[in-house]
Amino acid sequence: xxxxxxxxxxxxxxxxxxxxxxxxxxxxxxxxxxxxxxxxxxxxxxxxxxxxxxxxxxxxxxxxxxxxxxxxxxxxxxxxxxxxxxxxxxxxxxxxxxxxxxxxxxxxxxxxxxxxxxxxxxxxxxxxxxxxxxxxxxxxxxxxxxxxxxxxxxxx
Amino acid sequence: xxxxxxxxxxxxxxxxxxxxxxxxxxxxxxxxxxxxxxxxxxxxxxxxxxxxxxxxxxxxxxxxxxxxxxxxxxxxxxxxxxxxxxxxxxxxxxxxxxxxxxxxxxxxxxxxxxxxxxxxxxxxxxxxxxxxxxxxxxx
Lengths: 156, 139
Hints:
The complex is a heterodimer of chains A (156) and B (139).
Chain A: E1 6-7, H1 9-16, E2 40-45, E3 74-75, E4 78-84, E5 87-92, E6 95-100, E7 103-111, E8 121-133, E9 137-142, E10 153-155
Antiparallel strand pairs in A: 1-8, 2-3, 2-7, 4-5, 5-10, 6-9, 7-8
Chain B: E1 39-42, E2 63-66, E3 93-96, E4 100-102
């Protein structure tokens, strides 16, 4: 079992199929004409999970649990994609599980909207490098600077 | 805390002797005090304390916050450690994650088209006046 940080391969394919929309706001479709994007979520997983480039969809197996955490994780706040030089990128607002008691080794960002007939399509796997634990405290995911070299999701 | 209404009626009640006081008349009640104990809040949990009623005096005890309120821990430094060790500062962590990049590529394409049938083919006769020549190859 391992968690390897990666942009999921299925996600790369689905980009070309126009399945994901990261535009700010949520509940919209897969075209920008709706004015809002899909709903993306982030779920935490234990070190027993197997996640990586081959992950295609969210599943609750080996998901983190504990006080302050609900299966499925937190809903992310989209930041409309932009470009920097020749790189396209998108970002999310930081997210927090407040007053939580959680141990997690990694996370999965996924599209919880039903797009092209399927929901919970995997986007990216995040590897924390080691177990991260809170004890009645805030578990905050701080996303990196949204630029061409650091943004959470980039297409160079 | 709910209101408590104590009604004393004059006739045959527990504080008055038999046949004392007027029937169905209120009796003044003095010396009543009330109080509330301490309230403990946990981070992220809203607590609302309402005090109502006709008590002459009321009081709230001290408020104690637990659970790391107002303590910001950034990154994985400070009291953070790797492995399964629980972070200590306020019991919370702020976990910075790194991004992922998908590299894109654009391949070259082959372009072809049909042969133009409107071309005017041409040819040139081989000259029969050439003088062929050769050189021996060293053995």
